[in-house]
Amino acid sequence: MADFFSIDITEIEGFDNLHHAEGILQAAQERANRLYGADETFFLVNGSTGGILAAVMTAAKPGEEILIARNCHRSVYHAALMQDLKVHYYQPKRIREYDICDGVSAEEIGRLLDKYPESKAVVVSSPTYEGILSDVAGIAAVVHECGKILIVDEAHGAHLSYGGAIAAGADLVIHSLHKTLPSLTQTALLHVNGDRVDRDRLRSYLVMVQSSSPSYILMAGMDACIRYLEQEGQERFAFFREQWKVFLQKTAHLRNLRVGKMTDLSESGLALTDWDMGKILISVKDTGMTGKQLADVLREDYHIELEMATATYGLALMTLMDTAEGWQRLADALLQIDDRIEKERRGSKAAEDVLPGERKPANGGQQDSQTNGKAEDGEWQQEAVLTLAQAFHSESEEVSLHEAAGRISADFINLYPPGIPLAAPGEKLTQELLDEIEGCLKKGFTVHGVSSAGGIRVIVEIREKMWHY
Fold first, then answer.
1. pLDDT score for 267
2. Domains along the chain?
3. Phi and psi at residue 149, in whole multiples of 5°?
4. What angle do CA 235, 185, 5 make, to 5 degrees?
5. What's this model's pTM, rounded to 2 decimal places?
């Protein structure tokens, strides 16, 4: 790559055009398509974001309705905003043992489509940022029975044995190659199945949301990734699975930290079908430390960088290219940190005063800020007064958190990563939500949508005008 200028070409003779592929780029996309088994596959040069924008905007025309899982990536919301869609939300339940969102229930999706029959499409994320997999085949059956389009953001699942949501029958599936596979940042794929999607419309949107001068370095990188998977994929995946099993065996000896896995889930009625082995969720509940503190220790003492951290867990992202040494270092680091916690606990008089099973959670029993405590009935309860687009284009002002209760949000407010909105434009801000945001800030988490002065943007209210949508 030191001599990258020599390979940074453009649409010269013989090198095709991504937006009208007929030669080598068409062949490269077809190669990716054969590997993943969709009806058609498109290269994306501005990440999964471009694919999600194009997919949502193709499935629902301006002013129409759409049903999306509330824990979708912010790009789904951006697409809804750009199309001025009326959004209905499905809120996954919360897996209380790990403070993360459960998978998506096909039954609940069916119920919501009965309630909102004008919805043109359904958008879900599987796997989620934390690795939770849903019954995409069941969801697809329900969605298709209602005559709707199913879009699956599988950005974090490009490594899932090449089948995943495509084989399960989703109409549009988006993969980020760069997250878990050997490919450059910004490289992704958009797959299309069946005849429910207007492909001409999709191609037009892909032209709009992507550069007219796509990087040949990125496209060559994607093709190299696909060729690598064709030649070495089976062996690398076998190695990946083996390292994961060894890692779980070693970390089974943890006494305080917990590594999330399906066999640890005692709750009944959960919708998830599996847990992605590439997402190592490390729970710190009941340890006296936060996920951020765990991330800091891993970085400073062990030179291991986590993908993200919350109040109650840290998340490591493992990839197809991680080495045995990398897996071993993470396992050893967790075991050593766990030993430190155990020694501190034994030496603490406070710990001796707490009977087994009665230790208070490190987060004080607060609900996870990513779910906002709205996970009980499958439907988001935060009141939307305006559509995303109406709020985005309204006059706004910045107020302090203490002044914002009852006001209408003019911006997205989210922890990043993963970028799931705590509040979206057009939603009324509750005191409960504002308390959660303030709590996240006090714990040192990055909250997008809050200014350096601690303010958030709200709609300038016009008292004599009543908003309805």
1. 87
2. 4-228 (3.40.640.10), 234-352 (3.90.1150.150), 388-459 (3.90.100.10)
3. -100, 135
4. 105
5. 0.90
